[in-house]
Amino acid sequence: MLQIGTRGSKLATTQAGHVRDWIIAAGAPAELKIVKTEGDVNMAPVERIGVGVFTQKLREVLDAGGCDVAVHSFKDLPTAADDRFHLVIPKREDNREALIARDGLRLDELPEGARVGTSAPRRISQLLSLRPDLDIRPLRGNIETRMSKIDDGELDAVVLAYAGLIRNGYQDKATQVFAVDEVMPAPAQGALAVEVRMNDAAVVEVVDKLTSVIDRDCAFAERVVLNRLEAGCTAPVAAYSTFDEQTGMITAHGGVFALDGKKRLLAAASGTDPIAVGEEVSQALLADGAVELLGDS
């Protein structure tokens, strides 16, 4: 019975549950194993405690043999490869951003000075670019906690990853789903990362059956942008990719944003090698002054 390590939140167990079901369908028995991380008990903003608290403990348990498989949100993993683990990217969920607002409002319908919850600099900068009048408030907690702040009257709206809403069955709560070129998502948003020990050949063979090559390559191109800019996953850096089945070409788009929403740098590149495509995007952003813009954020 393969033990699948996961955090205990509803979103994490739902994501890991999908992986469990896929592994069972691939012919191997599997069950979830809950691993408590510091991020589950420390309610400080993720920008202060670091998103690594959500992944480091899982990796430690996996490396020590406490579980056979670890499931992460790919966007939460460090961009540097970890030679201890074999990484698989299954079929990706919708990577767009979603607004959940009171009274079914869209972003342009929110009143002046509306209180919108998000702690992600990438989201803050893009929201202020669209609506400089917004009162952006910090937001922490699971999906249910974040959405409850609207019902409690504390906030007028929150912005969340649409993938998380879909996986938890809350997609109908979204009052607006932004186009990827309107509010650019985080690199690898919507993708899961399934890790197993590199030397565990039998488990590697099982999880390799879950691989979605197109989703893997698109996510890799996006994460190369983040890596080459030497920016963490909480930095105001965004990326998304598309794949043309006729030509086999990946087109990656990257963006770097000033936190006040007053400046943005955008770049795009196409090719068949996801690493090269990501490199080209990042080099264009660097040439345009990405380091200086990130330093000001």
From TrEMBL:
<dbReference type="InterPro" id="IPR000860">
    <property type="entry name" value="HemC"/>
</dbReference>
<feature type="domain" description="Porphobilinogen deaminase C-terminal">
    <location>
        <begin position="218"/>
        <end position="286"/>
    </location>
</feature>
<dbReference type="Pfam" id="PF03900">
    <property type="entry name" value="Porphobil_deamC"/>
</dbReference>
<comment type="subunit">
    <text>Monomer.</text>
</comment>
<dbReference type="InterPro" id="IPR036803">
    <property type="entry name" value="Porphobilinogen_deaminase_C_sf"/>
</dbReference>
<comment type="function">
    <text>Tetrapolymerization of the monopyrrole PBG into the hydroxymethylbilane pre-uroporphyrinogen in several discrete steps.</text>
</comment>
<dbReference type="InterPro" id="IPR022417">
    <property type="entry name" value="Porphobilin_deaminase_N"/>
</dbReference>
<dbReference type="Pfam" id="PF01379">
    <property type="entry name" value="Porphobil_deam"/>
</dbReference>
<feature type="modified residue" description="S-(dipyrrolylmethanemethyl)cysteine">
    <location>
        <position position="233"/>
    </location>
</feature>
<dbReference type="InterPro" id="IPR022418">
    <property type="entry name" value="Porphobilinogen_deaminase_C"/>
</dbReference>
<dbReference type="InterPro" id="IPR022419">
    <property type="entry name" value="Porphobilin_deaminase_cofac_BS"/>
</dbReference>
<keyword id="KW-0627">Porphyrin biosynthesis</keyword>
<protein>
    <recommendedName>
        <fullName>Porphobilinogen deaminase</fullName>
        <ecNumber>2.5.1.61</ecNumber>
    </recommendedName>
</protein>
<feature type="domain" description="Porphobilinogen deaminase N-terminal">
    <location>
        <begin position="2"/>
        <end position="203"/>
    </location>
</feature>
<keyword id="KW-0808">Transferase</keyword>
<comment type="similarity">
    <text>Belongs to the HMBS family.</text>
</comment>
<dbReference type="GO" id="GO:0004418">
    <property type="term" value="F:hydroxymethylbilane synthase activity"/>
</dbReference>
